[in-house]
Amino acid sequence: MQPAALQDRAMITVSGQDAQEFLQALITTDLDLLEDGEAKPGALLTPQGKILFDFIVTRDGTSIRLETGTDQGESLLKRLTMYKLRAPISLALTNPARVTVRFEAAPGAYRDARFAKAGQTVYRAYDTEGETAGTDDYDRLRILNGIAVSGADYALQDAFPHDVLMDKNGALSFKKGCYVGQEVVSRMQHRGTARRRVVIVAAGTALPETGTPLTAKGRSIGVLGSVIGSSGLAIVRIDKAGDAIASGEQILAGDIAVTLTLPAWTGLDFPVEAGEESA
Hints:
Layout: E1 4-6, E2 9-15, H1 19-24, E3 38-45, E4 51-60, E5 63-69, H2 73-84, E6 90-94, E7 99-102, E8 110-112, H3 113-117, E9 123-126, H4 136-144, H5 182-191, E10 196-203, E11 213-216, E12 219-228, E13 231-237, H6 238-247, E14 251-253, E15 256-261
């Protein structure tokens, strides 16, 4: 697969002696576990525990960088500035930022921990130039491994981290202490109340467009997200999906019959009976 240039990315660089301490108390990622050369997912949550901003976190020397969407860059910078107060740090935004996805190691590239969890080798390289292919190969690999992104697969301020598998991909810490929204997501974790999850959608023909409802027994169980050909992603109620699967009921995307699979790397299963919680 050829490298893919992402056209919709922005970068916030947090510099200064307290950069890590500042972010550690705000975002979901445990920065003490962030290794050099690693790109880890993360989010800044609302106090109610929903995803306000999402990003990919990397180290650049003593600075920490947050790669996010171009549509989030300005707002995320303003939010971090609000929290900054007199902290001895500086914030800098590059929007748009040059981000290239690679499928083999390269000098200065960061291994994407989301794909590593799924057993795939994907790197992110910054400030790169040169000709690159389109993003179809990258999006196809992302879909086949159940890796959701905001915008295409879920709306910000609408999804909990568990909905998009952040509890499984290293984006969500339950051990580092307090951060914005931490109490809510910790309660969901310990009570096992997460019922919406990302699933891989497959059909025998081309899937309909993003935003098409998924239904079982005539009732909505989720919405179709990213789509390439006959494969896609969706966030669904896994209790309702599990009930339909167990009873042999057809699941539809629009009027197209589909099968749903939970990403194998998550270790999750559909509940056997309606209302049963996932493991």
